[in-house]
Design a protein that fits this description.
Elements lengths: L1 H11 L15 H17 L5 H18 L1 H4 E5 L3 E4 L2 E2 L3 E5 L9 E6 L3 E6 L4 E5 L4 E3 L3 E4 L19 E5 L5 E5 L1
Antiparallel strand pairs: 1-4, 1-9, 2-3, 2-11, 4-5, 5-6, 6-7, 8-9, 10-11
Length: about 180
């Protein structure tokens, strides 16, 4: 019950505008762990109660959705063209909103056989992501660490509007046009 009260207070204290912008505290992992423990206890309890299991499962889902999904989940989009040295390559583009602000969105560009790159729209920088850092699915992508963490660096000078030119380690240039 205390975890539910904390969740309600957490949501009530957030600013509600176009979207919810949750500012997580150091207590979020502890509350997520408490929710997971509650689900385990409700499954193994002597007097199994289905409503207790449903309530704890819902609470666990809400903490994951509020606490972790915004900084780890990216959805596939059908815009964005990728070229390497001017030649089109098959690529998938995913967009995530770690702060739920479109101006601060981050794109993941997944080019099979070449690599994964994060493009930060707010700072107009990029960083390479290892294949172990990202799980790429058809409809979305999940990052193990928050997508906006890491060492971002400036791209090559722009030649056109809404593009990011990324120098690759082998000397080629990958261009992502949005």
């Amino acid at each position: 019950m205390s975890n539910w009260i904390v969740l309600v207070c957490f949501i009530a204290n957030e600013k509600v505008g176009v979207g919810l912008d949750y500012h997580l505290s150091r207590w979020t992992p502890a509350l997520l762990g408490l929710s997971l423990l509650s689900v385990v206890v409700s499954i193994g309890a002597y007097a199994f109660r289905r409503t207790f299991l449903v309530a704890n499962s819902l609470l666990l889902f809400m903490w994951i959705d509020i606490g972790y999904a915004p900084t780890h989940w990216l959805e596939r989009v059908d815009f964005g063209n990728v070229t390497v040295n001017g030649q089109p390559v098959p690529a998938a583009v995913y967009i995530g909103n770690p702060t739920l602000s479109e101006a601060e969105a981050i794109a993941l560009v997944h080019v099979p056989g070449i690599g994964n790159y994060f493009v930060d729209f707010s700072s107009e920088n990029f960083r390479e992501a290892s294949s172990r850092e990202v799980i790429v699915l058809y409809f979305g992508a999940w990052t193990w660490k928050p997508m906006n963490q890491g060492r971002f660096r400036p791209p090559l000078p722009y030649l056109h509007v809404n593009e990011c030119r990324i120098p690759m380690s082998d000397g080629r240039v990958m261009t992502v046009a949005f």
